[in-house]
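Bumping with the actual sequence this time:
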Amino acid sequence: MAKKMIGIDIGGTEIKFALIDVYGNISKKWKIKTDAADNGNHIPNAIIRAINEEILNGADGTEDIIGIGIGVPGPISQNGELVVKAVNLGWSDMPLKLVIEKELQLPVILLNDANAAALGEMWKGAARGKANLVFVTLGTGVGGGIILNGEVLNGTHSSGGEIGHIPVQSEEQRVCGCGNINCLETYSSATGLLKTMSLLDEKKQLTKDGFTTIDIFDWLKEGNALAEQAVQKTVTHLGFALAGIMNTIDVEEIVVGGGLSEAGDLLLEPLKAVIDRHVFPEIRGNYAVKKAELGNDAGIYGAVYAYLTAQQHPNER
């Protein structure tokens, strides 16, 4: 029987779990609500309890489980033991690895959730067979992960791949949640697109009753000029940023996930057009822009993959 691992993706509203074997086959999935009360201090015990109740105390068999990979919404310390900060959870220097290892007697690997999703797409998703890619997720904010030669580009301060905080030049001033002005995510996230559409539709002809990003892309399909302007502004800022990244690290593929990616070619085709206009000529035509394939499972796959590779190269950690 193949050895198994537990993959965990900690989000602001729910924590997702899966039991996955070394070949990437999922045999069990479950989730719990995220309890961020008391600065998230209840979360580690909730994770331990969920694993005990679903697996360790059940009939799944602990002898086949070799470890745990966890994706978290924030940077990880260089020694891999602490979640340095997770604003949505209220965490600061949370010793998550040590707490869970002590209670469950299983080795644990921590990594940033966007980096986990990038690894997941490389292992089992849109970038299968690739070792160099940029992953960008367009949701409430803009998340990112960069994979070079099959490994996460983590950076000196565990903040590599923070694509959403690349600065944007604009006559507007939009305040980012990080405290800076005009970060990319204030323009190219779902939130940013909604803001742009609202500003363009000054007379509220389209938006008076409230609207969603799905509405914007529906209006785009109908040929609405304001929707076209809103989407173009969104992809222009994102395309500039991604072209800059491409010209710096020259990867094989850009994978786009998150809620906005559900628009498919309505988003990806104009995005690639912008990138093509600004990438180095040797790169143009020699890379792909693809929609992410794994959805909410990407982070779970990636967390498990990170655990697997850490076991194969233990001296590199």
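The tokens above came from a reply further down the thread. The chain is about 35% helix and 20% strand.
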